[in-house]
Request: fold
Amino acid sequence: MTAPASTIAASTGATILPFAESLAKAGARDMRPLRLITCGSVDDGKSTLIGRLLWDTKAVKEDQAVTLARDSGGQNDLGLPDFALLLDGLQAEREQGITIDVAYRYFATDRRSFIVADTPGHEQYTRNMATGASTADLAVLLADARVGLLEQTRRHATIAALMGIRQFVLAVNKIDLVGYDKAIFEQISHDFRQFAQGLGIRQITAIPMSALKGENVVFPAGNGAMPWYDGPTLVEALELATVRSAQAGGFRLPVQRVSRPGESFRGYQGTVSGGAVRPGDSVAILPSGTVANVKQIVTFDLVRNAAVAGDAVTLVLDRQVDVSRGDMIVSIDVQPMTGLHFDGHLVALQPGGIEPGKRYWLKSGTRRQRVMIEPVSQLELSTGNWLPHASTLAMNAIGKVRLSFQEQAIFDTYEQNRSTGAFILIDPDTLNTVAGGMITAKREDFGGIEIHRDGERVILSLPADLAEQLMATDIFLKRRNETEIRRVTAAQAVEFFSDAASDI
Amino acid sequence: MPLSAQETEVKNPPVSRPPLDPHLKALENEAIHIFREVAAEFENPVMLYSIGKDSSVLLHLARKAFFPGRVPFPLLHVDTTWKFREMIEFRNEIAEKYDLDLVVHSNPRGKAENITPFTHGSSIYTDIMKTEALRQALDAGGYDAAFGGARRDEEASRAKERIYSFRTPDHKWDPRNQRPELWNIYNGMIKKGESVRAFPLSNWTEVDIWRYIQAEDIPLVPLYYAAERPYVERDGMMILAEDPRLELLPGEEVQHGMIRFRTLGCFPLTGAIRSSATTLEEVIAELEIATVSERQGRAIDRDQSGSMEKKKREGYF
Reply:
């Protein structure tokens, strides 16, 4: 057996295909991997698109291709195997012919490497889409050129935007099946841009393509199929995308563990999740608020003169302070929010949904604490409207919620920091992950209940939500004429409370 | 009270390597984060150490994650007793060099019932000497978390496996009921008897592994490099012929040639490839033009599609 390209040859008699990947591929990559998510409705051709990406970037190895050819029991009319089989890895999926979970795929070009979260198109698996979107820098949204935007496509765009994705590629697929019609492509692009504007998405690249034929995926369409299109192929668009960085903003280091290999060394280990730090910087340890200076940034390779977002490091401080796992070391001048009450969005991930009043575990960064969730409204995915809602958020529901803690919680808004603004909820009974959430704001801390006497009457000052619940009870309604309801703003309430306090 | 400078200062080595490129650095950071998170949240973690290249990378990352401390958990090697001789030598050297706690376990049934890959076939043999042995060792150690070097690009069923992959008390994996994993927030809460397999290399590809070995100068078992070695051809695989327990079948003869291994397992089940790559650079160059996936040399995966998923459900790593 001869193998002209190299001396490698598998003993099974596998032959070397006549292409050779560029050696430049193995050279240093000057960019971090781009994480992307692919979404779209069932039958938009998503599996075919990813299969095409893997195939044309040579990420499919020969023996995998052989298995593929065998399992697809034949080939399609282009002589290519059924790419979907390459992707649907679990037997249950093969049997059902649908994709039921998030799968991660890897491919690379000379310029960059990519991690694709391949998520299902079925509505009941919206939670998996949210999972895939949580780590993605960019979303590729598929639309079938024959049918345009579907409700499911809009849902996925909405979820992706909510999860913080700001870069979108609209892949108008199966353009060959509409005769490469420019007007159709432009109409779908226009529809999407209009819809996306409402979501606050501005960075959109629309590309007409045929995933099946490989047109405008990795290679441009040939034979003058689309002379009217001179934009990038999908891969070119992906190569140009930016990787989200949390380097702007204040320094954040959620402490994972304290390293004490001996009496002489105490370091705080964690991954920088925002900003940057240098030796000599003043930092605060939250929630205690203790202040110290950074003495050293230790790594296995060398003692560093700076650490930036993403770096896994060990910090040594200049004095002995009480720091433990779950604490956050932050820049002294740009601190995150601390408090007991926050607002957020969350996606319910499990069949039981999210129950109001139940005490869940919340994990954010390295901090785990008890939390009460109160749903306020729910997103109607088909319209993008928030509808008032106060009961259980069912699986796949996206809700606005209020979070109440017993101990100080530490957050940035998700908008400001995708790491310190994110959290998961864990069911205390099943210990399963039941929701993913994003902090939108800190709520004013006037959640306390105050009572004081005013002559014969008792004045009870309650947070609005609690007041509403009380007023809805039978006992309250029966004695409605004995009470007086005053609605005040948060600022007025704070003033009211301080006045009341000084009275007593 | 401030500590004295002398007590806490960590000094830079006199010569340091050039920094990693951003791609590898991002993968390294992610792996270190996972190591620290598991070590902090679980009571009794262990690292599964298979001596192969992925394990070597995994061990290197563990040492980095806990520096300047030592690796705070033991390494577990499930020894089928049919590993390559050079693997065992390498394992012992590494354990001593890096001051590691090494736990080695072999299924006593192997010896008692004389179970070999030749007499029992790859499927039964793997079941007993790998899957069952692993369960025995994990139960004996009472480990609630086990690090593994699996990567999602290796095999279709792995592509959907979480970084924290849950196992029932009898070590079963339920691929259809995995916990969602969002951002880099891992849910490490488990019930008594349950455990987690943690995969810090999930997002690495084979090329990443090799480039990292090169960049970090990580020592490997020499079998990864081509050398003149004795082998026999059997079932379309080149089997290393150095162990006296390998009995030649009629028609077989020992041949000699420049060969190396892309993965290392049990020598009777691991096929070599012809190669002249004697250095890391040459191995990587070969890799770049290779079109055969690395698991291709393994008899285990070949039976049928979905074979790995089936094994994993039953508790294979």
